[in-house]
């Protein structure tokens, strides 16, 4: 389990930028204030001196000694005078302080050694963006998956109730030992919707999820095949092998040749060996899978993946009607 290195770098850069901009804005306000009020500028110079005096007094006699208490009183008086001057200018007493986006961690991303909630939130948003599902993650949730479209046939409704229940259970208990799912069913029956709903819940739990159609995934591996040198670039296909959960849509729509079969086998087998869960959706039935793919692939799909069947009438067509 873990956030992807790419998303972690992106979020860390975002927080570092926020922190630097907050400091820069504080310095800008301070310079503006000093130009407007020489009295405040003089007090700030005096406060810097009392700060150093406090440190020396604490080192020499402790915080209960008379020199330390005297400097503390001076410091307090200066702060009160400064606050009065700022109030006369219509400004709050903390006008020149650094106003971080997150006051808990000061935009560092960590509170002591623990990751701050703001960083976890940004990592989740980054995972949403990098998942490949985009705005679907907001629309296609378990809550928005309606069984009403399957009620015309009681048998179909019972089967889809079971499919929905298994999908929810899979998402709620997801771990790196969650196993694999394969969605069977014609187009328009909700396979992508439930894939997205699972992805959303898994991402919210802090896992790295990647979604794409198999043709697009194979296209990335083909790009890697002909790229002569990467230098500092990570191969495009690496993310499909290393993510915590891979969701491959549209199995069966890709061009079948020696290269694509080799890539598909490599993805499936590598993830099985590494115990990285995968969800595959296809419009093909089991017989068509066996006709289209070799035994090395079909034996893994039919033996290592839990099948979920989608039945009914095309939901898109029902909505149009």
Primary descriptors:
Rossmann fold, elongated, 7 strands, alpha/beta, 321 residues, two-stranded antiparallel ribbon, five-stranded parallel β-sheet
SS class? alpha/beta
Contiguous runs where pLDDT drops below 50 for at least 5 residues:
none
Number of strands: 7
Output the helix-strand order. Answer: HHHEEHHHEHEHHEHEHHEH
Q: Considering the protein shown, what is the CATH homologous superfamily of the largest domain?
A: P-loop containing nucleotide triphosphate hydrolases
- CATH architecture classification of the largest domain: 3-Layer(aba) Sandwich
**Briefly, what CATH class of the largest domain?**
Alpha Beta
Q: What is the rounded distance between the termini?
A: 44 Å
The main sheet comes to: 5 strands, parallel
Mean pLDDT, to the nearest integer, reads 88
Rg from Cα: 30 Å
Question: Can you describe what's shown?
Answer:
This protein has 321 residues and is α/β, with parallel strands linked by helices. The chain has two domains: 80 residues, no CATH class; 190 residues, P-loop containing nucleotide triphosphate hydrolases (Rossmann fold), CATH 3.40.50. Helices cover 58% and strands 10% of the residues. The protein has 13 helices and seven strands. Strands 4-5-6-3-7 form a five-stranded parallel beta sheet, with helices on both faces. Strands 1-2 form a two-stranded antiparallel sheet. β1 and β2 form a beta hairpin. The model has no long low-confidence stretch (mean pLDDT 88).
